[in-house]
């Protein structure tokens, strides 16, 4: 990592200015003009914010979005004294119906310089006029939940009509000059979260901590705010507040009494301070309040307050404005094999065969940049890939897919059709002087399509048609890399801030969303290619709020060391909390050669990531899972097999995420919001509601302490041994797997037959693993569809809830029948039901309807040579998953 | 007959796909059928037992898969397919009924109707043809190999005889040389004494003369001294020329830097853009950016900065970033290049500077190359050529020299030269009279000459002994079948590169003038089935280059299939008769016989 190549807050004038300001120290704070307060025809509250030394007021709009979200918008008034340009509102991020969903607010009650508006029966907002301050409260108790500008740090630098005499707007960083032709326009404010023990979110940063550590105030040594600025950082640090590839300006606060969230829709560079108690020298009066300071270089205030009150509610509220994660295809949830680079068709065939020889399943083989003709995307290096269609067909014959990389930097080569077209149509981002911006990336001199423009996104999407993308087939999917955008010779390895986009928008205003629009256009391209029937799969490195709608992300170029393995969990959990549930880290670590033991541990952890892909830098040694001796091959095979057996569970969790936004991989506190022990546990994680796992993050570790939350028992996933809840267990570390447990009271669906890829598992029978709680009951869900198309949106899916109570297991249909006429059916049966915690020595079970009797035997938890038979197992009930049935333990 | 057999096979396969084979034999190899008889069968891992009707009932009762050889129910089970007409195989039971044909008889897909055709006939035929060819290759190969083994035995015996003989000669010659040395020492001592006496005498005369004409004699002395100093200086100057030239480069480089800075200080974003390739002069001085700490972007054009940053990920040389800070350049010059080591033993020709260049060039990769060539045309031509030819030339001449030595020493009149030398020395020694004063100059010269001759002969013999000992120390395989690899190099072309593998010595990758050392001989691995070369040129951000050459039976020595599965770790395949082993031939022959007899059995049906 090259610290001095990236700006810190002190080298960033707007940040330095805002950060050195003391609370309530502005000479003339913004105040609400009492007489301007009104309810607009659409039902929002509007008002003017004025400032004695400024000619134009700011316009404020406050709207309530059910359920339990408040939106605050503040922009300049452009009606008179129009400044030469307008501030940028980030388009196409919020769901299109957000505006129309707003409630019609009642008229505010104003008493003593403060106006109160009811948002719902249990919430209201208090707007203090001078200085302007906003507080969201529980209506009954009057307890605050969130507040804005309670510390008087709200500042809004208005656009100036011209540069004042003697002023310099230019900024220098290293050899780069930012012309800043529009001058200062930054925005700063403070937000307080009440009843919070910790705050979370704000990806992407390397971190070993799940909670965001304070960045300023007592006890903070190296004070640097969390930076949100999408950057391609070479060999990033595993623990640092500096910005990485993506930015989601969304923070969640959680404490024993409340959960809340705050989201600022702004794509300019942002810096956020988490202020340690006592930062403002105020006495530590208020218990459980966390103050934060938000600073952005440009844009407007478009902020959302989410009131919870449960943590999952906060996520749902955020998802209700930015959209639900897209439902992936089945294959995408399975294992991916990548390397920079699988060099040629022979190499591809060899790796593919290697998996089969070693009985290791995988679903997708990836090709990095070297597959192209001179890094011209959408082309093939025909000397190494003479017949890409045939290659894909051979892979597809085994039910597998391929992915090729398509980056946004277009080689400036007059022989390259995309460059010619983009140049002719004026589709590239322009430099400050108006010429096509010319930067340097893999192909050398490169230009970047202006993804802000919907017309250009359409044009880009068309490039993915089979006709345009020669050598592509229906089993080829796409990987978007370098879309921060990465520019090797640009300031901080990205595009100059004064570069210009469609509509005279400066790059500084949308920087953090460039990759998002690129991802969107690519995803749309695959959707178009498949005539709207094939769910796209696009992996992106850069992301922004809303990226969850377009595909998966990964944590970029990590390093093959134990620290990076450890930080991958907080990083992936944080992405999950902020909507990006489909994420993972490169298994093995991108840079460097992992020690074989690290690689094995990484597979064991990575097999739980929502996005599970092995990847490696081209300087590293080959590391396909069979290259490290028989024992390690067996261990990695076992880890991958574990993932494949859990695919029905994972797929069901992805479906849940696609409806609610609640992530597949969850911090413990999302499932146990009252258990304080879990709040800052970044080593263990939940997969859905039922499975808890904790990685082994140290070389040669002999024992590990694992905290199991809740009051109920937990069962070891491998051997069924029970462990008490609410206890930190000191466990012997096993080489076979990382500590992983099933929570009692849950039912996990599995498929225990191992195939080459998930495609061949479609008709395989299920295993249900039931872990009974202390009252002898449990429940779980199974979602199944065709794994590929959008037919599920018209009802073509199976959604069952399995409920075990009173010695009876019942399968209940929970699919709503209002969706459409399409039907998904399958002959799949349940071949085995394992019941953990069953006290009776029952020997048989009766299936209803039909009154058919089946045996119960003691069986193993997993089908591995040497596994002990430990749990009562219903043998071959063979009930179909599509049917309603009941199985009674007799 | 053939047609009938074919039809029969078709019928069998049709029958196979129409109804699944009986459960009690499904997926079970013939030798195991006995295990599955009986009413209750044990799981092989001892974890439990199962009843006969649980055999292949599509539910896994034994975690090790004993009860489900014919279904996919147990992850650890294996499925046996008979593959009549071809060879039987055992597959993972996860392949059973997965919609993909794994057994040529289609028996693994009994659950899906007729997805898999029986292709064993064709596959078997092709396999038999292949096997036949292989057997033929082995047959001829074994003959060649045996010849080579015989030759090797003779040659080794010859080498050993020569070595013994040389060692004897060395002893004798050493004795002579010692004697001559002693003689020489005595002569020199006598001469020295004589000289001292003479000097004394001269001094005395001189002193006397000085007294008479003190002033006149000094001048000529002084001028003589000055003369000799002059020559000394000149010699030093010559020696330092190379270094100086190099200094010149640095100065040159210094001169460039300000220019670079100047071009960036102009706030013109377009500077240096719009070109696919950088202007040639920017890379006048090749540098190897080993020091990747932080980019001093001040001195770089936009393109150079782009390349430099890109190079972190790619690990490629940033040769194009010619104007990178001077410090980096100097560092680079100080760094001993990996190539240096390689050339050291190849005799002392390369100068430090050249090594730098050579090492540098060996690091060049693909498309960077064209910049290189342009760059280097700026460097004086002969130097460029020198740099590049040196390693190879020296390598070859090394061999040649050995050859010379060899012919010299093993010339037919071998015995006579030693006798002659002995004789001559004897004569010289006897003839010399120490008690004669002054020393007889012609005889002293004679002794010296004899000493020089004899010791040069001795060192030749010794070097020959060393090289023979080195050679005989090598592992030539069980039957010395690799003996004849010793003085051979094998070449194979792959893309734009020529790969040169010299067993017991080194391997290299050659592209035009530049040669990259892929490793020095390390050892045989896998009981002589693989040659390993290691510690080749260092890869930036990667390992030292290495090469593993897999050996296969073939009628001639052919190198191919060169590949680089991991960065800078090369693999190749060498076909050679040395690998055509008789036992393997027998094995193959048996296999072929078995395959053919199976077939004839079918023919008889």
Automatic annotation (TrEMBL), chain A:
Domain Glycosyl hydrolase family 31 C-terminal positions: 661-748
GO molecular function, a single term: carbohydrate binding
Domain DUF5110: 767-815
GO cellular component labels: endoplasmic reticulum
Domain of life: Eukaryota
Pfam families: DUF5110, Gal_mutarotas_2, Glyco_hydro_31_2nd, Glyco_hydro_31_3rd
Name this protein carries in UniProt: Probable glucan 1,3-alpha-glucosidase
Organism: Aegilops tauschii subsp. strangulata
UniProtKB/TrEMBL annotation, chain B:
InterPro entries for this protein: Gtb1-like (IPR039794), Man6P_isomerase_rcpt-bd_dom_sf (IPR009011), MRH_dom (IPR044865), PRKCSH (IPR036607), PRKCSH_N (IPR028146)
Parts forming coiled coils: 578-605
Keywords attached to this entry: Coiled coil, Disulfide bond, Endoplasmic reticulum, Signal
Any one Gene Ontology cellular component term annotated for this protein: glucosidase II complex
Domain MRH: from-to ranges: 452-582
Pfam family, one: PRKCSH-like
Domain of life: Eukaryota
Composition-biased stretches (Basic and acidic residues): 204-219, 231-259, 320-330, 362-372, 391-408
Residue ranges with Acidic residues bias: 331-354, 373-390
Keyword Disulfide bond: yes
GO process terms (BP): N-glycan processing
PANTHER family xrefs: GLUCOSIDASE 2 SUBUNIT BETA (PTHR12630:SF1), N-LINKED OLIGOSACCHARIDE PROCESSING (PTHR12630)
Protein name per Swiss-Prot or TrEMBL: Glucosidase 2 subunit beta
Organism: Triticum aestivum (Wheat)
Taxonomic lineage of the native organism: Eukaryota, Viridiplantae, Streptophyta, Embryophyta, Tracheophyta
């Amino acid at each position: 990592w090259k610290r001095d190549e990236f700006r810190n807050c002190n080298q960033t004038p707007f940040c330095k200015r805002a950060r050195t300001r003391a609370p309530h120290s502005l000479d003339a704070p913004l105040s609400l003009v009492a007489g301007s307060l009104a309810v607009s025809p659409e039902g929002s509250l509007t008002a003017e914010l004025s400032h004695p030394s400024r000619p134009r007021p700011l316009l404020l709009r406050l709207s309530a979005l059910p359920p339990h979200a408040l939106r605050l918008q503040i922009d300049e008034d452009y009606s008179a004294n129009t400044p030469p340009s307008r501030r940028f509102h980030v388009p196409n991020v919020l769901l299109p119906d957000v505006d129309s969903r707003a409630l019609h607010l009642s008229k505010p009650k104003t008493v003593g310089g403060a106006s109160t508006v009811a948002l719902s029966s249990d919430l209201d907002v208090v707007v203090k006029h001078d200085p302007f301050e906003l507080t969201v409260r529980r209506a009954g108790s009057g307890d605050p939940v969130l507040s804005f500008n309670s510390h008087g740090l709200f500042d809004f630098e208005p656009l100036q009509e011209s540069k004042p005499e003697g002023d310099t707007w230019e900024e220098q960083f290293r050899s780069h000059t930012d012309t800043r032709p529009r001058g200062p326009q930054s925005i700063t404010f403070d937000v307080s979260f009440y009843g919070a023990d910790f705050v979370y979110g704000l990806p992407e940063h390397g971190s070993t901590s799940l909670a965001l550590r304070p960045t300023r105030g007592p006890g903070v040594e190296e004070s640097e705010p969390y930076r949100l600025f999408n950057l391609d950082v070479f060999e990033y640090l595993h623990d640092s507040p500096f910005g990485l590839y993506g930015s989601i300006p969304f923070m969640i606060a959680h404490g024993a009494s409340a959960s809340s969230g705050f989201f600022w829709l702004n794509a300019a560079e942002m810096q956020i301070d988490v202020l340690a108690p006592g930062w403002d020298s105020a006495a530590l009066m208020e218990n459980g309040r966390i103050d934060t300071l938000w600073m952005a270089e440009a844009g407007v205030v478009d902020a959302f307050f989410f009131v919870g009150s449960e943590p999952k509610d906060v996520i749902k509220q955020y998802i209700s404005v930015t959209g639900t994660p897209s439902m992936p295809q089945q294959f995408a949830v399975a294992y991916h094999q990548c390397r920079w680079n699988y060099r040629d068709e022979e190499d591809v065939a060899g790796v593919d065969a290697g998996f089969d020889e070693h009985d290791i399943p995988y679903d997708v083989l990836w090709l990095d940049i070297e597959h192209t003709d001179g890094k011209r995307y959408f082309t093939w290096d025909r000397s190494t890939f003479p017949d890409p269609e045939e290659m894909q067909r051979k892979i597809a014959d085994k039910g597998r897919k391929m992915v090729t990389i398509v980056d946004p930097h277009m080689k400036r080569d007059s022989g390259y059709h995309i460059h010619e077209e983009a140049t002719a149509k004026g589709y590239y981002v322009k430099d400050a002087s108006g010429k096509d911006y010319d930067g340097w990336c893999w192909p050398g001199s490169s230009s970047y399509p202006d993804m802000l423009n919907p017309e250009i996104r359409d044009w880009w999407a068309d490039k993915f048609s089979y006709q345009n993308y020669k050598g592509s087939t229906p089993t080829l999917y796409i990987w978007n890399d370098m879309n921060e955008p990465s520019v090797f010779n640009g300031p901080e390895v990205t595009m100059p801030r004064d570069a210009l986009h469609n509509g005279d928008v400066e790059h500084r205003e949308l920087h953090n969303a460039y990759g998002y629009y690129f991802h969107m256009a690519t995803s749309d391209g695959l959707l178009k290619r498949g005539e709207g029937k094939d769910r796209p799969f696009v992996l992106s490195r850069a992301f922004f709020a809303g990226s969850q709608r377009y595909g998966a992300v990964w944590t970029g170029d990590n390093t093959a060391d134990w620290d990076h393995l450890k930080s991958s969990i907080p990083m992936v959990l944080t992405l999950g909390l902020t909507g990006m549930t489909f994420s993972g880290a490169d298994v093995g670590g991108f840079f460097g050669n992992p020690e074989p033991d690290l690689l094995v541990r990484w597979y064991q952890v990575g097999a739980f990531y929502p996005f599970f892909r092995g990847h490696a830098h081209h300087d590293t040694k080959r590391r396909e899972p069979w290259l490290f001796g028989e024992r390690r091959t067996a261990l990695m095979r076992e880890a991958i097999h574990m993932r494949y057996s859990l695919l029905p569970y994972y797929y069901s969790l992805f479906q849940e995420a696609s409806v609610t936004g609640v992530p597949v991989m969850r911090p413990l506190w999302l499932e146990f919001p009252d258990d304080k022990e879990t709040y800052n546990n970044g080593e263990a994680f939940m997969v859905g509601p039922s499975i808890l796992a904790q990685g082994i993050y140290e070389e040669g570790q002999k024992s590990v302490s694992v905290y199991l939350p809740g009051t109920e028992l937990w069962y070891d996933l491998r051997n069924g041994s029970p462990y008490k809840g609410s206890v930190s267990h000191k466990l012997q570390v096993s080489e076979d797997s990382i500590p992983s447990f099933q929570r009692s009271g849950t039912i996990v669906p599995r498929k225990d037959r191992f195939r080459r890829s998930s495609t061949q598992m479609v008709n395989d029978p299920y295993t249900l693993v039931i872990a009974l709680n202390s009252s002898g009951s449990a429940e779980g869900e199974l979602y199944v569809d065709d794994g590929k198309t959008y037919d599920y949106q018209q009802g073509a899916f199976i959604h069952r809830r399995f409920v075990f109570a009173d010695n009876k297991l019942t399968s209940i249909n929970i699919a709503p029948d209002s969706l459409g006429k399409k039907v998904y059916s399958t002959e799949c049966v349940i071949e085995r039901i394992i019941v953990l915690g069953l006290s009776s020595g029952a020997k048989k079970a009766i299936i209803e309807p039909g009154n058919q009797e089946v045996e119960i035997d003691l069986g193993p938890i997993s089908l591995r040579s040497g596994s002990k038979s430990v749990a009562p197992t219903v043998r071959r009930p063979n009930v179909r998953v599509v049917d309603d049935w009941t199985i009674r333990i007799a | 007959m053939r047609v009938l057999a074919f039809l029969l096979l078709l019928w069998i396969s049709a029958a196979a796909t129409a109804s699944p084979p009986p459960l009690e034999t499904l997926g079970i190899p013939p030798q195991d059928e006995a295990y599955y008889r009986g009413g209750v069968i044990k799981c092989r891992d001892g974890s439990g037992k199962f009843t006969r009707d649980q055999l292949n009932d599509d539910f896994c009762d034994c975690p090790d898969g004993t009860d489900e050889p014919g279904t996919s129910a147990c992850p650890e089970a294996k499925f046996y397919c008979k593959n009549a007409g071809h060879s039987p195989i055992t597959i993972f039971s996860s392949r059973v009924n997965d919609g993909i044909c794994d057994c040529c008889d289609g028996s693994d897909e009994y659950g899906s109707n007729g997805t898999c055709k029986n292709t064993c006939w064709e596959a078997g035929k092709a396999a038999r043809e292949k096997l036949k060819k292989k057997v033929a290759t082995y047959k001829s190969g074994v003959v060649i190999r045996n010849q080579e083994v015989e030759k090797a035995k003779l040659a080794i015996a010859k080498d050993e005889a020569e070595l013994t003989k040389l060692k004897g000669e060395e002893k004798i010659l050493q004795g002579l040389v010692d004697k001559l040395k002693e003689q020489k020492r005595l002569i020199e001592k006598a001469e020295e004494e004589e000289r001292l006496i003479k000097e004394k005498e001269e001094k005395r005369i001189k002193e006397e003369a000085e007294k008479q004409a003190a002033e006149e004699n000094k001048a000529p002395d002084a001028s003589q001294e000055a003369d000799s100093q002059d020559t000394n200086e000149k010699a030093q100057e010559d020696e330092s020329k190379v270094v100086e030239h190099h200094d010149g480069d640095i100065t040159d480089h210094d001169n460039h830097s300000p220019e670079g800075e100047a071009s960036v200080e102009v706030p013109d974003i377009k500077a240096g853009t719009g070109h696919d390739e950088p202007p040639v002069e920017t890379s006048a001085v090749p540098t190897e950016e080993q020091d990747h700490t932080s980019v001093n972007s001040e001195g770089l054009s936009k393109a150079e900065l782009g390349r430099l940053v890109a190079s972190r990920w790619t690990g490629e040389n940033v040769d194009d970033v010619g104007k990178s800070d001077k410090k980096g350049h100097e560092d680079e010059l100080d760094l001993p290049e990996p190539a240096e080591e390689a050339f050291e033993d190849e005799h002392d020709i390369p100068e430090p500077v050249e090594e730098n260049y050579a090492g540098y060039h060996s690091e060049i990769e693909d498309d960077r190359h064209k910049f290189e060539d342009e760059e280097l045309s700026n460097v004086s031509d002969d130097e460029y050529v020198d740099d590049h030819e040196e390693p190879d030339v020296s390598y070859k001449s090394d061999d040649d020299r050995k050859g010379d030595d060899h012919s010299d020493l093993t010339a037919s009149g071998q015995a006579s030269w030693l006798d002659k030398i002995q004789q001559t020395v004897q004569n010289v020694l006897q003839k010399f009279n120490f008690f004669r004063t002054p020393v007889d100059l012609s005889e002293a010269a004679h002794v010296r000459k004899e000493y020089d001759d004899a010791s040069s002969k001795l060192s030749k013999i010794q070097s020959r002994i060393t090289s023979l000992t080195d050679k005989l120390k090598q592992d030539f395989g069980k039957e010395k079948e690799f003996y004849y690899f010793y003085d051979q190099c094998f070449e194979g072309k792959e893309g734009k590169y020529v790969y040169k593998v010299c067993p017991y010595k080194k391997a290299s990758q050659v592209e035009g003038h530049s040669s990259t050392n892929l490793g020095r001989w390390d050892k045989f691995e896998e009981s002589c089935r693989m040659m390993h070369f290691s510690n080749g040129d260092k890869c930036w951000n990667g390992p030292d280059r290495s090469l593993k050459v897999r050996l296969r039976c073939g009628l001639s020595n052919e190198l191919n299939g060169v590949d680089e599965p991991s960065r800078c770790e090369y693999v190749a395949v060498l076909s050679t008769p040395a690998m055509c082993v008789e036992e393997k031939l027998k094995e193959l022959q048996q296999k072929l016989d078995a395959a053919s007899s199976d077939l004839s059995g079918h023919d008889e049906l």
